[in-house]
């Protein structure tokens, strides 16, 4: 099957920090260098360059990266943006390699939203409807979008603030086991309830960090992968899903709200390629821009039914010792906020057995979900068992 | 970024009326304004005014100055309001400060029109 003949063979990252003086382009170069070194490859081995389709082209374009490394590009691509783009990026490798357009591709993504004045909020200025009808009312940032969803979800399904706290507290425990996490202090339930409210019901620990940093990874055919430096991590499946609704409308207008239809579509495609079910997933790295969005994705990916996310988290457990470890490096909440590209790096480390104190015992198959509402990307990665 | 298809909202609000885009082909409201109806893709869209009474779908007390120019206005309430006579429309708005601590999802609200000189008209709400 198409999806199963691709592998991730090298990963690289910069140390995520709130403010870097290296510049975003410098950070991307550092991440790509690290990914090549990890794979044991030279720039001349790369013939495909992939990024997201919106944020990188306007900050660190692919031609610039190719020129820095001397990559001869016979494939160049970017689909969707941000988290969804990263999580579905193996689709590029599947298409390019199976069609003979390229043999070995590098994917990179990074942001400097820790230092940039407008941070993540500036991104939404792209949307005319938001500018005309939301900004004048002080509805300007992602924490507010998800605050409305969280309040409504509490009303409909009885979610409590303590349920949200459980996600933040659990992920912080995992973050403290990861040497690169930006969050370095423990978080108790007491700390959570004493923390500053940002946009009720969401508090500081419900919101992702702000980060300057970049990550990169190298994809090639499984056949080539088996000759390289590190044990290959197989791409068992990759999927993209969306719905025809614009970024203007997606947070406020859909009937019922609080749902991410693309997640179910993308997951279905990735599972089908992989020939497995969600019961086979040992751990998941889910786009936790907020506690509430992590919970909603657990439902929309299909780990539990609608309205049952909080019960699933309480009863099954999402910590490293739980039934479904989620965001094993601390996630966007406590590790870093690079829009989920760090989730791919973490999943690869888990499957190589390189996750150190944060290692999930017996991790064979992991799922990475990336959200860029209404778009969603999923990759399912597996240990190379022969 | 004021688009031509947005103008009807502000023209109506300046006259103390709440109006939303309405597709004459499929007889549905939609929001935000756009050239083609998101239900049936028709371009036969008019502005249709409604009575104005709405219901709180959700709300949030904003305690952080996402926009630095608002740091003096904290906290304020952003709310999402729906209308029985304009199904399919959810409007982002602010709720009058006095009601702040007692708000509940499902509360009934009515519009308050604000037209400051030289500014776009604003439509805020208060508890009915
Ligand atoms: Zn229509």
Structure description:
Chain A is α/β, with parallel strands linked by helices and about 375 residues long. In chain A, the strands form two sheets. In chain A, strands 3-2-4-7-1-8-11-10-9 form a nine-stranded mixed sheet, sandwiched between helices. A two-stranded antiparallel ribbon of chain A has the order 5-6. Chain A is globular and about 55 Å long. Chain B is built from one helix and eight strands; from the N terminus they run αββββββββ. In chain B, the strands form two sheets. In chain B, strands 6-5-4-7-8 form a five-stranded antiparallel sheet. In chain B, strands 2-1-3 form a three-stranded antiparallel sheet. At the A-B interface, helix 5, helix 6 and strand 5 of A face strand 4, strand 5 and strand 6 of B. The site of zinc ion (ZN) has 8 residues of chain B, from loops.
Task: Report the biggest beta sheet of chain B as strand number plus sense, adding barrel if it closes.
Answer: 5 strands, antiparallel
What oligomeric arrangement do these chains adopt?
heterodimer
The ligands bound in this entry are: zinc ion
Distance linking N and C termini of chain A: 16 Å
What would you say about this model in short?
Chain A is α/β, with parallel strands linked by helices. Chain A has helices at 24-39, 62-69, 82-87, 90-98, 128-133, 142-157, 161-175, 189-194, 222-225, 261-274, 291-301, 309-316, 331-334, 341-352; strands at 6-13, 48-50, 75-77, 104-112, 197-199, 202-203, 212-221, 233-241, 283-286, 365-372, 375-383.
């Amino acid at each position: 099957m198409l999806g199963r003949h691709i592998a991730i063979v090298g990963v690289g990252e910069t140390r995520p920090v709130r403010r870097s003086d290296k510049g975003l382009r410098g950070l991307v170069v550092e991440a790509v260098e690290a990914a090549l070194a990890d794979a044991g490859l030279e720039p001349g081995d790369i013939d495909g360059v992939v990024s997201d389709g919106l944020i990188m082209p306007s900050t660190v374009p692919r031609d610039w990266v190719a020129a820095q490394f001397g990559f001869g590009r016979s494939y160049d691509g970017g689909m969707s943006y941000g988290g969804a783009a990263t999580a579905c990026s193996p689709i590029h490798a599947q298409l390019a390699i199976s069609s003979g357009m390229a043999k070995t591709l590098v994917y990179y993504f990074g942001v400097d939203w820790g230092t940039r004045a407008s941070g993540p909020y500036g991104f939404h200025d792209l949307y005319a409807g938001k500018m005309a009808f939301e900004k004048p009312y002080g509805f300007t940032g992602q924490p507010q979008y998800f605050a409305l969803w969280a309040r409504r979800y509490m009303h409909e399904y009885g979610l409590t603030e303590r349920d949200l706290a459980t996600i933040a507290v659990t992920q912080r425990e995992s973050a403290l086991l990861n040497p690169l996490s930006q969050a370095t202090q423990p978080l108790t339930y007491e700390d959570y309830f004493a923390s500053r409210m940002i946009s009720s019901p969401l508090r500081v620990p419900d919101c992702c960090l702000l980060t300057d940093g970049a990550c990169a990874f190298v994809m090639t055919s499984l056949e080539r992968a088996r000759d390289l430096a590190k044990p290959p991590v197989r791409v068992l499946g990759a999927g993209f899903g969306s719905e025809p609704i614009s970024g203007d409308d997606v947070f406020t207008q859909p009937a019922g709200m609080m749902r991410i239809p693309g997640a179910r579509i993308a997951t279905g495609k990735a599972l089908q390629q992989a020939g497995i079910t969600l019961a086979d997933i040992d751990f998941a790295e889910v786009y936790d821009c907020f506690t509430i969005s992590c919970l909603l994705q657990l439902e929309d990916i299909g780990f539990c039914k609608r309205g049952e996310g909080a019960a699933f988290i309480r009863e099954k457990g999402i910590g490293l010792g739980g039934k479904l470890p989620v965001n094993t490096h601390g996630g966007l909440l406590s590790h870093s906020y690079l829009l989920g590209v760090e989730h791919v790096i973490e999943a690869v480390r888990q499957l190589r057995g390189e996750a150190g104190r944060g290692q999930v015992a017996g991790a064979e198959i992991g799922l990475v979900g990336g959200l860029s509402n209404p778009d969603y990307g999923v990759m399912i990665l597996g240990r190379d068992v022969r | 970024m004021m688009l031509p298809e947005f103008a009807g909202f502000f023209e109506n609000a300046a006259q103390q009326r709440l109006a939303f885009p309405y597709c004459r082909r499929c007889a549905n409201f939609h929001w935000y304004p756009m050239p083609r109806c998101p239900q049936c893709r028709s371009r036969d869209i008019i502005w249709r005014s409604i009575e104005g009474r709405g219901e709180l779908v959700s709300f949030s007390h904003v305690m952080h100055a996402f926009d630095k120019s608002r740091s003096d206005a904290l906290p304020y309430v952003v709310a999402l309001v729906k209308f029985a006579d304009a199904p399919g429309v959810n409007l982002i708005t602010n709720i009058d400060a006095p009601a702040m601590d007692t708000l509940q999802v499902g509360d009934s609200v009515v519009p308050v029109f604000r037209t400051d000189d030289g500014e776009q008209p604003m439509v805020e709400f208060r508890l009915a």
